[in-house]
Amino acid sequence: MVRDIRERSGRRRGRRADRQEGGARLPSGRRCAGRGPGPDGAGPTPCAAWRAPRIPADLARPWVVAAALALLGLAGCAGPPPAEPPLSYPPSVRERMLRIAVSEWIEWGRQRADAAAPDEAGKETAGDGAAMRSAESAPLHFPRLVAYWRAVPEDEGAVARNRERYRAALAAERGLLLPAGGAAAPPRSDPSRPWAEPPWSAAFISFVMRTAGVDRREFPPAAAHATYIDALIADAEAFPALAPFLPHAPEAYAPRPGDLVCADRSPSPLRHWRDRAGDQGRFRPMHCDIVVGAAPGAVEAIGGNVRDAVTLTRFPTDARGVLLPRPPGAPVWFAVFENRLGRLPPWGPDRPAAVAGHDRPAAPLPTGSPAS
User: Is residue 361 a part of any domain in this protein?
Assistant: First the structure.
C-alpha cells in the first residue's frame, strides 16, 4: 500500500514537472519531456519545440468552431462587389437630349460659329477681358447658368461667387448704389463680371444629359469634361456590349446626331482617347459638343461656353463624314463618343416587335441648316 501511494505521488510530481517545463503530449500520444537540449547540444529537441495549442474554453464549444469555419469559408469566397452594368434607354431619351440642346441654343440667341474660319480657332473662352462678348454676363442668362451648375454634384463654388457678381450687375443695371462695403459693379471688360469663370461647358453637357433623363450611372455629371470622359471610357472597356457611349478614334468614325465630339485644349494634346490612360485621372482641359446634325461636308454640334454662350458650331468633314483635323492653334480632336441611347437591346435594330411598336421617327431639329 505504501508502495502504491509513493508511485501515485511520483506520477503526480512528474506531471507537475512536465507542466512547469512545458511538457505536453504530442498528437501521437507520446509525452514530450520538456525543453532539454538536443543530442548535439545545439537546441531543443523536436519534442520540446512542439507546444499544444491552447484554446479558450468558450471557443472550444462545437458551435463556435463551426461558425468560425463558416465565416472563414465566406471570407475566402468574398471579393470586391461587381460593377453594376449600365442600363439600356429607349430612343426617346436621345431625341429629348437633342431637343434640349437645340432649345437651349435657341434661348441663347441662335449664335453660330464656323470652325473652319481662321478667327474661330480658339473655341472655348474662359475670361480674356475685352475680347470676350457679354452674352453669359447678361442678367437674363443668370438662371440658365445656375441650372447648368446645379446639374453637377460639385460646382466649385461657381454659384456662390457668381451670385455676388449678379447682385452687382443688377445694381449697375438699375443705377442703384450698393450697400456699404459692397464692391462696385464690374465693367463688361472685367473678368470678374458674372459667369466669367469658371468655364461651364461641362456643366452644360451634364445639364442636357440629366434633363433628358440619363441617370448618373450611365453619364456621371461633372464640372470638368475629363471627369465624365474617364467614366465613359471605363464603362466602354468594362461593358463594351452595354455601354451607352462608345469611344472612337476621330479619324475612323463619322459622327451622328447625339454623339459627343471631344477635343483636347491642352498645350500637349492627346490624339487618341486611349492615350488618356497615361494621365491616370489627372485634370486635362477638354471640350465636348453634342452633334445635332450631319450632312455631306460638315457636322453641326452645340456646346456651352463657346464664345460666351451656347453656340452651334459647324465642323468640316471629309467625304466619309469623318471630322477633318482642326486648324493650327485650335483644340485637337481625340475622341468621338458614339451615342447608343435607344440603339441597344431591347431598343436596337434587333428589338422585339412589342418594343418596336413604341418607337417613332425623330422630328427634324429646328436649326435651320441642311445638316439638321
Answer: yes
